[in-house]
Amino acid sequence: MIQRGRDITSDTTLDCDLVVVGTGAGGAMVAREAARAGVKVIALEEGAHLGPRDFTQREDEMLPLLFQDGGGRTTDDGAITVLQGRGVGGSTVHNTNLCKRAPATVLDGWGVDGWRADQLAPHYEVVERDLSVAPIEESRVNRNNAILRRGVEKLGWRGGILSHNRRGCVGSGFCELGCSFDAKQNALKVLIPAAVGAGARVIAECRAERVLCKHGRAVAVQARALNADGRAGATVTVRARAVCLAGSAVGSAALALQSGLPDPSARVGRGLRLHPGAAVAGVFDEIVEGWNGIPQSWECTEKLSFDESPANDDRTWIIAAFAHPIGLASSLPGFGPAHMKLMRLYPRISVLAAMLHDRSEGTVTVSGGRPVVKYAVDGADQRALLRGMAACAEILFAAGARQVIVPYAEPLTLSSASEVGRVAARGYRPLDPMLTAVHPMGTLALGRVVDERGRWRGAESLWVADGSLFPTSIGGPPQLSIYAAGHKVAGHVIESLR
Amino acid sequence: MLTRRGFLRAGIAGTLLLGGAAVVGRSLSGYHLDPAIARRLRVLSPKEYLVMQAVARRVLAADGDDAPSPDSVDVAGAVDTYVAKLPSAVQRDVRGLLQLVEHGSSLFRGHVARFTHLGAAEQDATLVDWQRSSLTVRRRGFQALRTLAFLGYWRDDRTWPLIGYSGPMLPKRPG
Hints:
A: 498 residues, FAD/NAD(P)-binding domain, Cholesterol Oxidase, domain 2, eight-stranded mixed β-sheet, 23 strands, B: mainly alpha, globular
């Protein structure tokens, strides 16, 4: 069953074998696997349980429902917007369905037994099968992505088609606002119904506030049911033989810190990676209408090397990054008539983004009961990011852009490829340009905060199954790896409960 | 995107100065809003609505006569509706930011006029001050104001023909 917090009107205590906090890729996978194994599961989710009929394709209506703080969560200095999902299905509800395994060099580089590429492969295979992961057909590449492909091919750079978990996609282009056509084969559509079908109970609109420990064991999660306007109501206490944190690298770390969980490694909330990215816009003579069709179907990997030497500044993954009007307006520079003039170019604009395979480390802390994300892009990462932004400009020019706009506060407008060096010259300072991150990772890392099975070091019966586990950036979309991690950790949790 | 929790505690001297101005400003009067609009507000005070409206008029100043005005699509009202759906901590930050703009901006420009009492050119200059400030907290405030204004404007179907946006495939639901 799926229950709503607003319907819980008095303090409640529930008992189960396993309580899972969070229902995104990791949490939903753990819930499904455990329920199928006969484990009595309760999954708690802060956001609402929504479905295709709730997804209106309107930014102002969907942002508050699908994103933490209405899409307004940022790093502490405001320099990086950290887009994180909320609601049953977590970020899998709003993501663009990108499915890519973490590179073997990254996984093997972690040096954590059980997480080498060959050891994780069976878990990836299950996820890819269950979520219908397949390459996007060439005929489905939209104009914005075709521009990326054209530019990359003209430059002779590396690139290719991406795989997604979508089936029956009509190409509406509103993926980031939830799929009104139920084409996303995600946690919401595939895993949660399977978990519920196997007996799991999901409580949406219920915010976990504390993990309770007794004699060194996690024994319960204390939560608050949220009423219709989001205010905390009744207390919900879920007593369990095991607790699994799966509320994202921000949410899980914040909950752990708020709960005062034992931290022998002194690493809880540290080691945060974000994959911060910067957008670059090209103005074309041709019609692009990048809001139509599948948003991200092609990638450029020319500037993405997993060589971990300090001298490697080629650490950005380049993808198409189109947005609907509010999103685009926010990413274009300036205000007033000059900004309005840029907006009029909307149908002829192509947008690419350089996403950083970052080495900078941030932190998650808690203040006043809410997470605080601190993260500064260090010098080496700034260099790599600027190289990636310049590469975006090169691609756009190669594809035929007559002008490229780099969205600094004082816009940098380039008129030919020979000018891309001006990006590095302009440099980076916080908020200029604004960065966006959608992949927080690493705050409860494998081999540090948790052991190689995902079990908490310092408390029994406590597990982690989300992007917090990754000890480093993985340099690509993490959802497939988080699903796979959830699948792997679920096996260990089930075994521990037998 | 929006201002975030902690905006008023950014740990720099300028923040304290701005915060003080905002506290003083809360007690000042002289804001008149149509009572029918005021009754509809869910989070913003009438004064904060008027500050948001003034900011929106500058951020969304058009380059031609064909653009719907920010007032005609009620940008400030849309911001109020949007912010009402966010956590109370974020609501407090948005309200604090609007107070800062109204009363804190003048401290950096050598006069005591409120933002809403300035002429258009002076308001633009004030926003540019925020945009270019050496204080991260002001640059961040500028980004938040801009985003709120864009959200209130470009969500409206009437603005879409201006930019050739075909809009959602689904019809708008009533209410």
